[in-house]
Amino acid sequence: MTDDIICPFYGQNEDLCDIGCGYISPSDVRQIIRYCRAQHHECSKFQELAQRFPERAADPSPRSAARSLPLETAVMKDGENYPPIAARQINHAEQDDEESIACGSGGAGIMSFAAATANPVPLGLFGFGMTTVLFSLRQAALIPFDPLILAIGLFYGGLAQIIAGLLAWRKNSTFDATSFISYGLFWLTLVGLVVLPRAGIGEAPSSLAMVSYLTLWGMFTTVMVCAALPLGRLMVAVYALLGVFFFGLALGEAAALPWLTRLVGWEGVACGLLATYIGFAHVINDVYGRHILPR
C-alpha cells in the first residue's frame, strides 16, 4: 500500500507546489516519477512545505478529501505506477506507437511524443509578452508606430504564437492552444488592419469598427481569465491586465481620450512584462529540473 501514497501537496495549490497544477512540463514529469508517489519524503520541496504545514504533511491517506485530483494510476510497460496527470502525458504508447520513444535502458518504459517534446508555453508567452510591451509603448506615445512594431507583430506576436499554440494542441492543452493561436491571429489581424489600407486594399477601419473590434477581444479575454483560474495567480493576472488593456483601448477610442490611451499603454507594458517573466520562469525551471522561480 506504500506505493499508493501520493504527496499530500501534489496538485493542491500553485502557490505551494505547482506540480500537478495546470500544464505538466517535462521537468514536472521527471519530478512526479521520482518523488510524488511514495518517495515524496525525499523531495526538498516536500520537506520545506512539511515544516510550514505539518498537519497536512502528516496525512498519509492515499485518498485525502482535500485532493483536487483523482488518484487513479496508470500502469506503464515496466509496471511502474504514476500519478494521473503524468499518465496523461506519458501513457499514450499503446494508441500512438509510431510516435512513442523508448526511455531508460533497453526500452524499459515508454514515453509519448507529447511528453518527450519541449514545453511550447514559454515561446507563446515570450511572443505575446514582448509584442505587447512594444505595442503598448506605442500606445503610451513613447515610440512611433513604425515597421518595427509591424514586424514583431507579424512574426513573433503572430507566427510564433500560432506555432506555440499548435504545439500546445499536440500536447492536449486546450487552454494554451486556444490562447496562443487566438492572440497570434489577433496580432496578424492588427497588422492587416494597418498594412492592407496602405496597400490600397480596402479602407482604414472607422472608429466604431475599432471600438467593436477591441471590445470583442476584451470579452474573449474575460472568458480566458475565468479559464485561467486553476493555473495560478500570475496567469490570471496576465489575462486580467490584458482584458483591462482591450477595454481601456476601446473606451479611449470611443471617447477620443488620448490621455486614457496613453495610460492604458502603461498598463499594457505591465501585462507584457508579466507574461515575459512567466515564460522566463518556465524556461529556468525546465532547464534546471526544479522549481526555482514561481509561475
Can you lay out the helices and strands and say which pair or pack?
Layout: H1 26-36, H2 44-52, H3 54-57, E1 74-75, E2 81-82, H4 84-90, E3 101-103, E4 109-111, H5 113-116, H6 121-139, H7 147-170, H8 174-198, H9 207-227, H10 233-255, H11 258-288
Antiparallel strand pairs: 1-2, 3-4
Helix pairs in contact: 6-7, 6-8, 6-11, 7-8, 9-10, 10-11
How would you sum up this structure, described in words?
- Helix content is 60%, strand content 3%.
- It is built from eleven helices and four strands, in the order αααββαββααααααα.
- The strands form two sheets. Strands 1-2 form a two-stranded antiparallel sheet. Strands 3-4 form a two-stranded antiparallel sheet.
- A hairpin with a 5-residue loop joins strand 1 and strand 2.
- Helix 6 (121-139) runs antiparallel to helix 7 (147-170) and helix 9 (207-227) runs antiparallel to helix 10 (233-255).
- It is elongated, with a radius of gyration of 22 Å.
- The two termini are 33 Å apart.
